[in-house]
Fold Amino acid ABC transporter ATP-binding protein, PAAT family (TC 3.A.1.3.-).
Amino acid sequence: MLEVCNLYKSYGTLEVLKGINFSAQKGETLTIMGPSGCGKSTTIRCINRLTEPDSGHIIYKGKDILRLHKPELLKIRQDIGFVFQGFNLINRLTVFDNIMLALMKQDLSKEEVKKRVRKSLDQVHLRDFADSYPQDLSGGQKQRVGIARSLALKSSLMLLDEPTAALDPILVREVLEVLESITSTQDKSIIIVTHEIDFAYKVSDRILLMDQGRIVERGDPEKVFTEPTSKIGKKYKELFEYK
Ligand SMILES: Nc1ncnc2c1ncn2[C@@H]1O[C@H](COP(=O)(O)OP(=O)(O)OP(=O)(O)O)[C@@H](O)[C@H]1O
Protein backbone atom coordinates (compact mmCIF):
# COMPACT_ATOMS: atom_id res chain seq x y z
CA MET A 1 0.00 0.00 0.00
CA LEU A 2 2.69 2.49 1.04
CA GLU A 3 6.44 2.36 1.00
CA VAL A 4 8.58 5.18 2.37
CA CYS A 5 12.23 4.93 1.32
CA ASN A 6 15.24 6.96 2.39
CA LEU A 7 13.37 10.08 3.37
CA TYR A 8 15.59 13.06 4.19
CA LYS A 9 14.51 16.54 5.27
CA SER A 10 16.43 19.52 6.66
CA TYR A 11 15.37 22.98 7.71
CA GLY A 12 18.51 25.06 7.07
CA THR A 13 21.25 23.30 9.01
CA LEU A 14 18.76 21.32 11.13
CA GLU A 15 18.56 17.74 9.83
CA VAL A 16 15.08 16.61 10.80
CA LEU A 17 14.77 13.32 8.89
CA LYS A 18 17.92 11.26 8.38
CA GLY A 19 16.85 8.38 6.17
CA ILE A 20 13.39 7.16 7.12
CA ASN A 21 12.29 3.76 5.78
CA PHE A 22 9.06 1.93 6.45
CA SER A 23 6.05 0.42 4.76
CA ALA A 24 2.37 0.11 5.60
CA GLN A 25 0.21 -2.78 4.46
CA LYS A 26 -3.47 -2.65 3.53
CA GLY A 27 -5.63 -2.50 6.64
CA GLU A 28 -2.66 -2.00 8.95
CA THR A 29 -2.57 0.48 11.83
CA LEU A 30 0.90 1.91 12.19
CA THR A 31 1.76 4.23 15.06
CA ILE A 32 4.67 6.67 15.04
CA MET A 33 5.92 7.61 18.48
CA GLY A 34 8.95 9.38 19.90
CA PRO A 35 10.06 12.44 21.86
CA SER A 36 9.03 15.95 20.89
CA GLY A 37 10.97 17.27 17.93
CA CYS A 38 12.22 13.87 16.70
CA GLY A 39 10.51 14.32 13.31
CA LYS A 40 7.20 12.46 13.63
CA SER A 41 4.98 15.21 12.19
CA THR A 42 7.49 15.95 9.46
CA THR A 43 7.44 12.27 8.45
CA ILE A 44 3.66 12.01 8.29
CA ARG A 45 3.31 15.38 6.50
CA CYS A 46 5.81 14.27 3.85
CA ILE A 47 3.53 11.37 2.88
CA ASN A 48 0.98 13.65 1.20
CA ARG A 49 3.54 16.39 0.61
CA LEU A 50 2.15 18.95 3.01
CA THR A 51 5.87 19.09 3.74
CA GLU A 52 8.26 18.56 0.83
CA PRO A 53 11.10 16.21 1.71
CA ASP A 54 14.57 16.89 0.28
CA SER A 55 14.97 13.40 -1.09
CA GLY A 56 13.58 9.88 -0.98
CA HIS A 57 10.66 7.98 -2.43
CA ILE A 58 7.09 7.57 -1.26
CA ILE A 59 5.47 4.81 -3.25
CA TYR A 60 1.69 4.75 -2.82
CA LYS A 61 -0.26 2.16 -4.78
CA GLY A 62 2.66 1.86 -7.16
CA LYS A 63 3.20 5.60 -7.80
CA ASP A 64 5.98 7.75 -6.34
CA ILE A 65 4.11 10.63 -4.70
CA LEU A 66 7.27 12.75 -4.70
CA ARG A 67 7.46 12.62 -8.50
CA LEU A 68 3.82 13.60 -9.14
CA HIS A 69 2.84 16.92 -10.71
CA LYS A 70 0.19 19.04 -9.01
CA PRO A 71 -2.99 17.69 -10.73
CA GLU A 72 -1.98 14.09 -10.03
CA LEU A 73 -0.95 14.97 -6.49
CA LEU A 74 -4.31 16.63 -5.80
CA LYS A 75 -6.05 13.53 -7.12
CA ILE A 76 -4.04 11.16 -4.95
CA ARG A 77 -4.67 13.37 -1.90
CA GLN A 78 -8.36 12.54 -2.33
CA ASP A 79 -7.37 8.99 -1.48
CA ILE A 80 -5.34 9.96 1.58
CA GLY A 81 -7.31 11.42 4.49
CA PHE A 82 -5.42 13.73 6.85
CA VAL A 83 -6.52 14.58 10.40
CA PHE A 84 -4.67 17.56 11.84
CA GLN A 85 -3.73 18.49 15.41
CA GLY A 86 -5.58 21.79 15.10
CA PHE A 87 -8.86 20.48 13.54
CA ASN A 88 -8.70 22.73 10.42
CA LEU A 89 -12.45 23.35 10.25
CA ILE A 90 -14.04 26.32 8.53
CA ASN A 91 -15.89 28.33 11.20
CA ARG A 92 -18.53 29.86 8.93
CA LEU A 93 -19.67 26.45 7.69
CA THR A 94 -21.81 23.95 9.59
CA VAL A 95 -20.40 20.57 10.57
CA PHE A 96 -22.32 19.00 7.68
CA ASP A 97 -20.94 21.52 5.16
CA ASN A 98 -17.39 21.18 6.48
CA ILE A 99 -17.50 17.49 5.67
CA MET A 100 -19.35 18.02 2.39
CA LEU A 101 -16.65 20.45 1.24
CA ALA A 102 -14.05 17.71 1.44
CA LEU A 103 -16.07 15.67 -1.04
CA MET A 104 -16.55 18.42 -3.62
CA LYS A 105 -13.57 17.36 -5.70
CA GLN A 106 -14.93 13.84 -6.03
CA ASP A 107 -17.25 13.04 -8.88
CA LEU A 108 -20.27 12.09 -6.74
CA SER A 109 -23.99 12.73 -7.00
CA LYS A 110 -25.56 15.12 -4.46
CA GLU A 111 -27.38 12.19 -2.88
CA GLU A 112 -24.20 10.14 -2.52
CA VAL A 113 -22.41 13.11 -0.93
CA LYS A 114 -25.19 13.58 1.62
CA LYS A 115 -25.28 9.86 2.35
CA ARG A 116 -21.55 9.76 2.97
CA VAL A 117 -21.63 12.83 5.21
CA ARG A 118 -24.44 11.35 7.33
CA LYS A 119 -22.71 7.99 7.58
CA SER A 120 -19.40 9.54 8.62
CA LEU A 121 -21.18 11.62 11.29
CA ASP A 122 -22.78 8.43 12.61
CA GLN A 123 -19.38 6.76 12.78
CA VAL A 124 -18.04 9.47 15.09
CA HIS A 125 -21.33 9.75 17.05
CA LEU A 126 -22.10 13.31 15.92
CA ARG A 127 -25.32 12.82 13.98
CA ASP A 128 -27.13 15.41 16.11
CA PHE A 129 -24.49 18.06 15.46
CA ALA A 130 -24.79 18.22 11.66
CA ASP A 131 -26.23 21.75 11.74
CA SER A 132 -23.94 23.09 14.47
CA TYR A 133 -21.04 25.42 13.79
CA PRO A 134 -17.49 24.57 14.88
CA GLN A 135 -17.47 27.28 17.58
CA ASP A 136 -20.35 25.50 19.34
CA LEU A 137 -18.40 22.23 19.66
CA SER A 138 -15.91 20.99 22.23
CA GLY A 139 -12.36 20.26 21.09
CA GLY A 140 -13.13 16.54 21.12
CA GLN A 141 -16.21 17.05 18.97
CA LYS A 142 -14.25 19.25 16.56
CA GLN A 143 -11.63 16.58 16.22
CA ARG A 144 -14.32 13.97 15.61
CA VAL A 145 -15.61 16.17 12.76
CA GLY A 146 -12.06 16.13 11.38
CA ILE A 147 -12.10 12.34 11.59
CA ALA A 148 -15.56 12.17 9.96
CA ARG A 149 -14.29 14.37 7.12
CA SER A 150 -11.49 11.94 6.53
CA LEU A 151 -13.82 8.91 6.74
CA ALA A 152 -16.26 10.47 4.26
CA LEU A 153 -13.50 10.53 1.65
CA LYS A 154 -13.45 6.72 1.90
CA SER A 155 -9.72 6.97 1.50
CA SER A 156 -7.61 3.82 1.61
CA LEU A 157 -5.03 5.58 3.77
CA MET A 158 -5.74 7.82 6.73
CA LEU A 159 -3.02 9.92 8.34
CA LEU A 160 -3.52 11.38 11.80
CA ASP A 161 -1.04 13.84 13.26
CA GLU A 162 -1.43 13.94 17.05
CA PRO A 163 -5.23 14.08 16.86
CA THR A 164 -5.54 14.44 20.63
CA ALA A 165 -2.76 16.97 21.20
CA ALA A 166 -5.03 19.94 21.84
CA LEU A 167 -7.48 18.15 24.15
CA ASP A 168 -8.03 17.66 27.88
CA PRO A 169 -7.90 14.06 29.20
CA ILE A 170 -11.67 13.48 29.04
CA LEU A 171 -11.84 14.64 25.44
CA VAL A 172 -8.71 12.65 24.61
CA ARG A 173 -10.52 9.51 25.73
CA GLU A 174 -13.60 10.38 23.68
CA VAL A 175 -11.53 10.78 20.50
CA LEU A 176 -9.40 7.70 21.16
CA GLU A 177 -12.53 5.57 21.63
CA VAL A 178 -13.79 6.66 18.22
CA LEU A 179 -10.39 5.95 16.67
CA GLU A 180 -10.21 2.58 18.33
CA SER A 181 -13.51 1.54 16.78
CA ILE A 182 -12.34 2.78 13.38
CA THR A 183 -9.07 0.85 13.52
CA SER A 184 -10.90 -2.33 14.45
CA THR A 185 -13.74 -2.08 11.94
CA GLN A 186 -12.29 -0.51 8.78
CA ASP A 187 -9.93 -2.08 6.32
CA LYS A 188 -8.13 1.19 5.60
CA SER A 189 -4.48 1.67 6.46
CA ILE A 190 -3.99 4.12 9.27
CA ILE A 191 -0.82 5.94 10.23
CA ILE A 192 -1.11 7.85 13.46
CA VAL A 193 1.36 10.05 15.32
CA THR A 194 0.59 10.03 19.02
CA HIS A 195 2.09 10.27 22.50
CA GLU A 196 -0.67 8.04 23.95
CA ILE A 197 1.23 4.89 24.91
CA ASP A 198 -1.76 2.80 26.09
CA PHE A 199 -3.71 3.62 22.97
CA ALA A 200 -0.72 2.76 20.77
CA TYR A 201 -0.29 -0.55 22.57
CA LYS A 202 -3.96 -1.41 22.14
CA VAL A 203 -4.61 -0.45 18.52
CA SER A 204 -1.30 -0.70 16.63
CA ASP A 205 -0.31 -3.56 14.41
CA ARG A 206 3.17 -2.05 14.41
CA ILE A 207 4.89 0.82 16.15
CA LEU A 208 7.74 2.92 14.81
CA LEU A 209 9.69 4.66 17.53
CA MET A 210 11.69 7.63 16.31
CA ASP A 211 14.57 9.52 17.86
CA GLN A 212 16.46 12.45 16.34
CA GLY A 213 15.28 11.90 12.78
CA ARG A 214 15.72 8.12 12.72
CA ILE A 215 13.54 5.09 13.41
CA VAL A 216 15.20 3.38 16.36
CA GLU A 217 12.64 0.66 17.16
CA ARG A 218 10.04 -1.04 15.04
CA GLY A 219 7.75 -4.01 15.45
CA ASP A 220 4.54 -5.07 17.11
CA PRO A 221 3.69 -3.21 20.35
CA GLU A 222 4.74 -6.15 22.53
CA LYS A 223 8.20 -6.20 20.98
CA VAL A 224 8.71 -2.43 21.02
CA PHE A 225 7.59 -1.97 24.62
CA THR A 226 9.18 -5.08 26.12
CA GLU A 227 12.39 -5.75 24.16
CA PRO A 228 13.77 -2.35 23.15
CA THR A 229 17.43 -2.04 22.22
CA SER A 230 17.78 1.75 21.88
CA LYS A 231 18.20 4.28 24.69
CA ILE A 232 14.90 5.97 23.90
CA GLY A 233 13.18 2.60 23.49
CA LYS A 234 14.23 1.68 27.02
CA LYS A 235 12.74 4.95 28.31
CA TYR A 236 9.45 4.16 26.58
CA LYS A 237 9.51 0.68 28.10
CA GLU A 238 9.79 2.29 31.56
CA LEU A 239 6.91 4.63 30.77
CA PHE A 240 4.83 1.71 29.57
CA GLU A 241 5.54 -0.34 32.70
CA TYR A 242 4.88 2.68 34.93
CA LYS A 243 1.41 3.07 33.39
N1 LIG B 1 8.55 24.60 9.07
C1 LIG B 1 9.60 24.40 9.87
N2 LIG B 1 10.65 25.25 9.85
C2 LIG B 1 11.74 25.05 10.63
N3 LIG B 1 11.85 24.02 11.52
C3 LIG B 1 10.84 23.16 11.58
C4 LIG B 1 9.66 23.30 10.77
N4 LIG B 1 8.82 22.28 11.07
C5 LIG B 1 9.44 21.52 12.01
N5 LIG B 1 10.64 22.05 12.32
C6 LIG B 1 11.59 21.51 13.29
O1 LIG B 1 11.84 20.17 12.92
C7 LIG B 1 11.99 19.35 14.07
C8 LIG B 1 11.03 18.18 13.98
O2 LIG B 1 9.70 18.70 14.06
P1 LIG B 1 8.42 17.74 14.05
O3 LIG B 1 7.22 18.63 14.17
O4 LIG B 1 8.50 16.81 12.91
O5 LIG B 1 8.65 16.94 15.41
P2 LIG B 1 7.66 16.01 16.22
O6 LIG B 1 8.43 14.78 16.54
O7 LIG B 1 6.39 15.85 15.48
O8 LIG B 1 7.44 16.85 17.56
P3 LIG B 1 6.12 17.02 18.51
O9 LIG B 1 5.90 15.70 19.18
O10 LIG B 1 6.53 18.07 19.47
O11 LIG B 1 4.98 17.44 17.61
C9 LIG B 1 11.77 20.26 15.27
O12 LIG B 1 13.02 20.66 15.77
C10 LIG B 1 11.02 21.43 14.68
O13 LIG B 1 11.30 22.61 15.40
